[in-house]
Specification:
Blueprint (H helix, E strand, L loop, with lengths): L1 H5 L5 E3 L1 H11 L4 H7 L26 H14 L5 E3 L1
Antiparallel strand pairs: 1-2
Length: about 90
């Protein structure tokens, strides 16, 4: 948000390519999905459907610390690559 205010912008949104690049790893196979495949049907695996849209799916696959490093590196670039600022 700081960058939005600093740039006197009124809106920000991801480019279609940036969104697609993000969705691919986040919705890809993960150890949690393998676990959910053998779990009793319920809230966490979409009643046993296990289609990658459950509560515990769609997380950054490398974990929280690598995700925070990714964000830090992206912010340090300073160009807001993948974001349309208006």
């Amino acid at each position: 948000m700081k960058e939005v205010f600093d740039r006197d912008a009124r809106s920000i949104e991801p480019t279609a390519q940036a969104e697609a690049d993000w969705v691919k790893p986040v919705t890809g196979p993960s150890p949690m999905r393998e676990y959910q495949a053998i779990c009793t049907p319920g809230y966490y695996n979409q009643e046993g459907k296990n289609e990658g849209q459950g509560f515990l799916d769609n997380l950054y696959p490398e974990g929280a610390v690598p995700f925070f490093r990714l964000l830090k590196a992206w912010r340090e670039q300073g160009d807001l690559n993948g974001i349309v600022v208006r």
